[in-house]
Amino acid sequence: MTALDPALVLDTLPQMLLDVGAIERNIAIKEAWTRDHGMVLAPHIKTTMTEEIVRRQLPGCWGVTVATTAQAAKAVEWGATRILVANEVLFRAHLEQLRSMLATSELEIYALVDSAAGVAAAAEVFEGADRPLRVLIDVGISGGRTGIRAPGEAGPLAALVVAAEGLLLAGVSAYEGVAPNVRTEENLAAVDSHCRLARDIFESLEYDVAEPVFTVGGSAFQDRAAMFLPAGAVNVLRSGCYVVHDHGTYAGVSPVPGLEAAAVVRALVVSAPEPGRVILNAGKRELAYDAGLPVIVGHYRGAEVLSGGSASAATLTKLFDHHAIVDGAVGFEVGDTVDLGISHPCSVFDRWREVIAVGADGVEVWEPAF
To answer: Residue 105's domain is classified under what CATH number?
Structure first.
């Protein structure tokens, strides 16, 4: 049985469905790809924040990546022993949480800095700590998110980290995924430039650790990042979306062959108010839409398969809170069900308290922990 089986008995609709076999295959494919390209993997678990998925990822990984200290705490609960917080941590209570985690567990924790204020905030909390916080210099791009913008900023910032008690200068971080998810020559040149800058900054610094970390992220351009890995580093790839892949933006841009979309949302046709138009009982509260509207990948009437994938010309054209408009819906009737493929999996798991995981051994209920 797979998540796309129309005969799957569900207690409610709409419902998010996961194909466990596809998830496990994606994990194996990504681990092999990472090894083959001279990197180690620290998957960004904020994509799913689902224990059963993360525990499947852990055995083949160097560590895990998170965005927040709350996610870091969950990662420890699920068995992670090395955590990379791909973010600036400045709020005192969050820094104290990291110090407490380090004091009570055999952990390594990495966090990013891009300012003197960030170093000072961490240094104040970690002064006198038995186990240090490992710090990565965050390298960004003009117009992007966090991170220093020029090579000349790195040396003085690194010196502040080295001088601070309780902190270890442990490497450099960059995020090439800030670029739009398109493989135009112009866009790839910008990605390459960013990765090259981060590598050059890494090679310009001296570190407090024997095995400094050079880390890049994203599921869209990891092949480009792999072209700019410095020697003498632990080169950490922190992709997240690969684990469930998608039917949209990453399906169109990922350089990793063989990944399968492992998540759909099954919804019900609840109205057919106009010719060629039907209304589904799923909308913004159930579906990701920040990287494109969902696509219909299956159409069923009871256990009968009416169409799948590109065979359906029906197109979602608008979302409301709990409804979606589908146009071009020839042959659709009230009571039919559809499977909706999602673009950008990072924006759908947090909408669900429970998801249905369908595997060879049956059906389980998994609970994302956002």
So the answer is: 3.20.20.10
